[in-house]
Recover the amino acids of this structure.
């Protein structure tokens, strides 16, 4: 009701300018929402799995992105619909929390919505469906816990980790050299991991890309890579045993924040001011030199004079280094970031075994390598590739692989991929459904069917007969009571995911199911959509 | 209830077949566009910019053509991107890479039409590319040990690169020049040290390589025009009015006399600076920034050659060449490294005066002076020479070379064909298609030269069936000939980059099954 009456019988308006707003209510609202959610899921469905296709996205400025990563696709899509935005959020939260499985979670949610629509047609109340889904998701998550396997690895034996990362990478365009990339990702994570606390700070892993070269040239650098060069072209290009002063103050005369004016009215003042200025530069450089620094890294720019003085005193320097990079350098070299020249002390200098400048290709591109640092807990993954889109996509893929490795260090449990876990859950949920009295039973059964849609999409994308394949695998799982059978996407000839070495992390899978259920519940509970009309 | 719009107003989505079709069409259009420039008899393109003045460029360089296009098709952008990268990485083969990628997609389109899954095509292409590369690796020639032979290889490579460009008339001359310049670099790939100066007038033949360094600047008035045994100070400092850099300082005076005093002090300061500079015992001073009349006069009085406003590159190069450091403060003359050269003189090229530094301390740098009838010719000549220099500098590092004239493509095609026969499954169709795409390159070269491509390629294929064949297409005589005898060589690194990036690009485009275009960002209407 948009119109109400107060106690004196005068009408007043709750919803203003009603006829200019479009409004959907009741079952129509739910249907429309479900349709929107499904449409988003449909876009991503074909990206799932090792044979999934990519999407080409053209941004508002004409820039082109080619990707297979669910979160990226959704983020770059110009989505207008509210429900579609919810799906985008869903994929993003999976990305933040787990980093991988961003496509799977959306496909899952789409399948749940599709099933919900069918239940709605049967006349089941949306809340009952939502509750049924909730129960079913609990069952599924518990079942995952049960079928999960712990697997052992340590710093020396990281083969299992590599295998899991390879599963993640196999669906990306970089699967040509998934082995080497997976190794790089695992080594990077192990280098920064705190195995005692089971924590990994991914901020310590920097992913840099440079166009040119081959994907195979991608390397892991135990140190920091900065896309900068020495401030003066004639400074030495290589420094061994560098003592690094990390500064956040410019090599320029100070700029006090308070407003002030220095008035020059006599020749003497003019002279002294000039002297002071020169002295100022001299002092700055001298201070750095005095504490024993052999390399200065500065967040700000240098004055020409200061630059020359640095060069002259044989003190190489790098300018305009970004804040994040500065922090990484500080962590890696064990130095402190010094905000003022006066506070420079020898203890605050960072140490690195080797700093060198390297140039690439025919253009004047140089980068600075800082290696053999005092604290090796900061590493850089340096990606080379044929073109910019390739590099961007590789960056995203490496990020996914890093996240997976991190999750495994946090929690060593894995489940089997290739849809095996989904099929096992679906069976468990199906069995649980029969035990529930009440209408929820139907919703739970619907949930089981929705779970089937992930392996189904996998089979479809791999060019297999979806229904035939799924039913074969399902019966195999039931017959032998082993939850390791999945879809044979790569045409290897076996359905046993243990043999194919296709793993996924337990927390990733659990999160997928929980997040998808939550969003679907939220969408189902909406029964009124009010949107301002177009103008 | 209709399905709601998910996207914003002007955003659009193309799915499945349509998406693939649109990317195939876009990519092939681009490849057809540059196809005619391939090979020694390839034609040029005129590019007219939409900007003010409608500047015109005439070029044969794939990367340059593609860079200037305004493209809306996302797949076409991928191709432009790979050509750009090819330009940055190896400098040459920018057209070939696009043509090959286009051919690969053309073949892929046929396969997709016959219901082969794109992923199968991709895995076939990958195998084929790998096999092609191995085939090339087996046949490379490496003359690193033999400097004389290596040099002649380089000249041949340079000539092959140049023969498709505007310089083809004088390719021997330019090839010698480029190789000499590259040898001066002594293995470094820093092409910055080779300076190319373009001066209209004369003919292309009059272009020359100069062992010294040429600065396109004028010598100040009243200063010596020729200095022997020059000691050079390269500087980056303000020689106009030196402003006070302390923040918030300003001049505030209350009478005219004081103004005069301060002005005097300023002058004094400048004089001071000049004296300090002179204390270095120099006879040539090169500054990046302006030199005002007053200090210039002071320099002239001291008999020092002062050159103002040399840009950043000029300064850096000069520092590199003469071995001096770029100075900005002048308080301790004893420790500043000065640059040296035997002779500085003003020379005339055409009607322009240039400053020539010869007998420099470091022999790395050199200058190439290009002469030609017009700016367009010179621009194109520079691009061609740049291509040649890039290829040469890469070849110096990776000395493996191959024969040219479609030879590498035929070698690869043969091996790939054999692989196709051995491979079971649908992949073999894709591998076969790859070999067809490879053959398209010699076909295009022949077509562009107005030859009977079908006849020639068939003949070539037959000859390649025997082991160790060196046949390729000789465009000049219009027949199949021995490439080794004709001296047509190409760098292995270029071919490898062409093969790998073209495959990568084709793969990328093939993987796409959905194109989502965002609404273009609204620009303020300036009309």
């Amino acid at each position: 009701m948009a119109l109400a009456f107060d106690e004196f019988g005068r009408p007043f308006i709750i919803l203003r300018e009603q006829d200019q707003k479009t409004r959907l209510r009741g079952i129509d609202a739910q249907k429309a929402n479900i349709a929107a959610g499904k449409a988003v899921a449909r876009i991503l469905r074909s990206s799932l799995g090792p044979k999934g296709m990519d999407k080409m996205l053209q941004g508002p400025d004409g820039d082109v992105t080619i990707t297979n990563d669910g979160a990226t696709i959704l983020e770059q899509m110009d989505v207008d619909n509210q429900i579609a935005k919810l799906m985008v959020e869903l994929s993003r939260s999976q990305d933040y929390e787990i980093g991988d499985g961003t496509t799977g979670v959306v496909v899952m949610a789409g399948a749940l919505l599709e099933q919900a629509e069918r239940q709605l047609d049967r006349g089941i109340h949306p809340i009952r469906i939502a509750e049924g889904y909730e129960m079913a998701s609990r069952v599924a998550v518990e079942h995952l816990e049960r079928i999960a396997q712990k697997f052992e690895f340590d710093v020396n034996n990281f083969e299992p980790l590599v295998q899991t990362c390879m599963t993640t990478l196999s669906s990306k365009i970089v699967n040509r050299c998934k082995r080497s990339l997976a190794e790089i990702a695992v080594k990077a994570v192990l280098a920064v991991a705190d195995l005692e606390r089971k924590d990994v700070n991914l901020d310590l892993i920097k992913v840099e890309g440079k166009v040119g070269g081959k994907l195979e040239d991608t390397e892991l650098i135990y140190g920091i890579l900065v896309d900068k060069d020495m401030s003066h072209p004639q400074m030495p290009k290589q420094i061994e045993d560098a003592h690094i002063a990390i500064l956040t103050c410019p090599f320029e005369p100070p700029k006090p924040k308070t407003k002030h004016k220095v008035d020059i009215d006599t020749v003497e003042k003019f002279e002294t001011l000039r002297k002071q200025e020169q002295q100022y530069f001299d002092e700055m450089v001298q201070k750095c030199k005095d504490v024993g620094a052999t390399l200065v890294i500065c967040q700000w720019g240098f004055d020409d004079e200061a630059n020359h003085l640095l060069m002259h005193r044989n003190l190489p320097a790098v300018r305009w280094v970004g804040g994040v990079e500065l922090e990484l350098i500080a962590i890696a070299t064990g130095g402190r970031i010094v905000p003022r020249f006066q506070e420079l002390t020898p203890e605050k200098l960072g140490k690195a075994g080797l700093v060198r400048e390297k140039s690439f290709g025919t253009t004047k591109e140089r980068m600075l390598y800082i290696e053999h640092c005092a604290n090796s807990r900061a590493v850089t993954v340096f990606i080379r590739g044929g073109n910019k889109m390739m590099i961007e996509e590789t960056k995203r893929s490496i990020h996914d692989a890093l996240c997976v490795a991190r999750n495994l260090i946090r929690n060593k449990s894995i489940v089997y991929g290739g849809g095996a876990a989904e099929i096992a859950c679906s069976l468990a949920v199906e069995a649980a459904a029969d035990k529930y009295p009440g209408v929820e039973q139907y919703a739970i059964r619907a949930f089981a069917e929705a779970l089937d849609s992930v392996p189904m999409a996998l089979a479809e994308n791999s060019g297999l007969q979806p229904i035939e394949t799924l039913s074969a695998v399902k019966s195999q799982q039931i017959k032998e009571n082993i939850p390791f059978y999945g879809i044979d996407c790569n045409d290897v000839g076996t359905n046993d995911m243990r043999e194919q070495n296709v793993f996924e992390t337990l927390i990733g899978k659990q999160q997928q199911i929980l997040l998808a259920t939550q969003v679907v519940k939220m969408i189902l509970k909406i029964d009124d959509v009010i949107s301002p009309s177009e103008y | 209830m209709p399905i709601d719009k998910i996207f914003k107003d002007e955003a659009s989505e193309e799915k499945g077949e349509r998406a693939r079709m649109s990317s195939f069409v876009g990519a092939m259009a681009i490849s057809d566009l540059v196809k005619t420039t391939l090979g020694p008899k390839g034609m040029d393109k005129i590019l007219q910019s939409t900007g003010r003045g409608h500047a015109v460029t005439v070029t044969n360089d794939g990367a340059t053509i593609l860079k200037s296009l305004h493209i809306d098709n996302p797949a076409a952008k991928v191709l432009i991107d790979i050509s750009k990268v090819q330009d940055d990485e190896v400098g040459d083969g920018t057209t070939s890479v696009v043509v090959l990628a286009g051919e690969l997609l053309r073949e892929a389109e046929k396969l997709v039409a016959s219901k082969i899954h794109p992923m199968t095509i991709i895995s076939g292409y990958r195998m084929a590319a790998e096999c092609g590369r191995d085939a090339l690796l087996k046949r490379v020639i490496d003359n690193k040990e033999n400097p004389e032979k290596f040099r002649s290889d380089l000249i041949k490579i340079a000539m092959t690169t140049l023969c498709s460009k505007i310089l083809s008339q004088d390719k021997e001359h330019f090839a010698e020049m480029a190789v000499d310049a590259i040898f001066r670099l002594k293995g470094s790939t820093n092409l910055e040290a080779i300076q190319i100066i373009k001066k209209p007038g004369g003919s292309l033949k009059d272009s020359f390589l100069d062992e010294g360094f040429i600065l396109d600047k004028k010598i100040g008035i009243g200063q010596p025009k020729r200095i022997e045994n020059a000691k050079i100070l390269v500087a980056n400092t303000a020689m106009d009015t030196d402003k006070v850099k302390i923040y918030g300082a300003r001049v505030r005076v209350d009478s005219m006399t004081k103004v005069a005093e301060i002005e005097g002090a300023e002058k004094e300061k400048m004089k001071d600076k000049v004296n300090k500079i002179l204390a270095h015992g120099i006879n040539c001073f090169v500054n990046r920034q302006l030199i005002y009349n007053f200090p210039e006069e002071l320099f002239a009085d001291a008999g020092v050659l002062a050159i103002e406003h040399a840009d950043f590159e000029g300064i850096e190069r000069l520092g590199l060449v003469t071995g001096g450091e770029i100075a900005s403060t002048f308080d301790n003359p004893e420790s500043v490294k000065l640059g040296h050269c035997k002779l500085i003189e003003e020379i005339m090229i055409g009607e322009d005066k240039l400053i020539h530094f010869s007998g420099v301390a470091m022999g790395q740098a050199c200058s190439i002076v290009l002469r030609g009838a017009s700016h367009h010719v010179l621009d194109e000549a520079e691009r061609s020479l740049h291509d040649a220099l890039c290829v040469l500098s890469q070849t110096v590092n990776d000395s493996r070379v191959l024969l040219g004239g479609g030879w590498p493509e035929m070698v690869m095609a043969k091996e790939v064909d054999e692989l196709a026969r051995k491979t079971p499954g649908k992949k073999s169709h894709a591998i076969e298609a790859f070999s067809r795409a490879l053959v398209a390159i010699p076909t295009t070269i022949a077509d562009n030269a107005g030859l009977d491509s079908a006849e020639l390629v068939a003949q070539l294929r037959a000859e390649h069936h025997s082991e160790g064949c060196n046949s390729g297409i000789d465009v000049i005589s219009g027949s199949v000939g021995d490439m080794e005898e004709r001296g047509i060589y190409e760098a292995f690194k270029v071919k490898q980059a062409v093969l790998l990036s073209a495959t990568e690009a084709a793969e990328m485009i093939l993987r796409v099954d959905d194109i989502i275009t965002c609404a273009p960002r609204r620009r303020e209407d300036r009309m």
The longest strand of chain A covers residues 350-360.
